[in-house]
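pasting input
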Amino acid sequence: MKEAEITVIGAGPAGLSAAIEAAKYGANVEIIDENALPGGQLFKQIHKFFGSKEHYAGTRGYDIGRKLLSEAENLKVVIKLNTVAFGVFDKNKIGLFDQKDILISKPKKIIIATGASENPLAFPGWTLPGVMGAGAVQTMINIHRVLPGKKVLMVGAGNVGLIVSYQLLQAGADVVAIVEAMPKIGGYFVHAAKVLRMGVPILTSHTIIEAKGEKEVESATIAALDQNWNLIKGSEKELDVDLICIAVGLKPEADLCRMLNCEFTYVPFLGGRIPLHNEDMETTIPGVYVAGDVSGVEEASVAIEEGRIAGISAAESLGYISEEESEKERMKCKNRLKAFRIGPFGSPRQEGKNKVFEEYKRRTKNVK
Amino acid sequence: MLNEQTILNKVKTSPGYPSKERFFKGPVAVIECPEEIPCNPCEEACPFGAIKVGEPITNLPMLIEDKCIGCGKCIANCPGLAIFLVNLNYSKDEATISIPYEFIPLPDVGEEVDVLNREGKFVCKGKVIKVNKGEDHTWVITVSIPKEFFEVARNIKPLK
């Protein structure tokens, strides 16, 4: 088989979109993914997505996954599953382990689309079986059709906490409460409204302080917080639950960028340490691109657009597409991204991205 | 703090919520989407051009009252499950609400169900009069209720 010119790491919405664009212009593309199935988080998203037509709005996440996957396959993109990209060396040698052998891939361009990982939350009892991350809960209920608990406490009222709460209800669980340490709900109003009208209380300025149980979770103790984040004595309440689901945010999964010595900056609103990149999604290491949550935690529709931009940029740098045409195509994606990053949820993300772009300019100028 | 009253106040002042006069004229879409998020499938779903989002995509959906005939096509097309249909002229004493529904089992036509408000609290008993297959696994359930509850009734208790 011909060696891939572009290796995309991660077969989620960003990686698939990047591969589709680059392959469309004729590049030879492979995607590496450590999971048994492609699609990243898309196949466990059973809800309909927001956005516009270009972002498959109104389509359920798993159907978006199917569409992207079949597009990639039609373009003869090679998808290597069950394969871990464990390291990148000498700027373009990717170490892969396919459960049998160690392989080295030497592409001309690398697109890192490794997504994000969940933030943990430590409290007494947090290691008991029955304390799980929202991602794992979602995988169990929506992919494996296994209900990991019947009475649930959800910790975190961002979109993930709200959406997974609703899906737990759909799966037949009782969501006893959602606690959120912030004084207000972090996720969208419509997602909150959906769980509220099912009778699930959302307790803002509340947190979990302990999980109790002999061998597994038998109860959770929650308490109210004052405006200085101190526990309000006497507000403790013990809830009868057998599952505590943690949904307290995500951070970019950027280890490969670190191994490559990409430069980083800190943007709390985008999930923390972000690999610097320009608007064409190239990092401070030429020929290495990022897209999706690894470049700042946002959402699937953003990941799709960023993936497209990275794919076009990589194809352009290999000479498959003229500068003029690629600029035109990228502009379409950029305009849609701009429209996405306004409003009360979008504009802080745009500000965060601007900081990343500006710092990229400043640092790459200093190098040259 | 979000509860029935604060949610109602919030949605009532948004451009997707029908005026009192429009409610009295018969079936109408009630768009409870009061926050600027990037989303617009409702605009395209309406065959009568009665919902406008426009540019930018974060605009709040606006209901153009006199264009809405109350067909209900928007209900199952809203990814946020935030659109309902209210018909105040169903009968002398009863109104109907149509809600997006994504739970199984589905209720049967004629079945009596518990009708809930925006925080899931019991409002009244209602009778299922229609169970329609909406779009892509979202069903639309229409329930008749005493007229006085048209503004608070927004859900039914899922059957076990």
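fyi The first strand of chain A starts at residue 6 and ends at 9.
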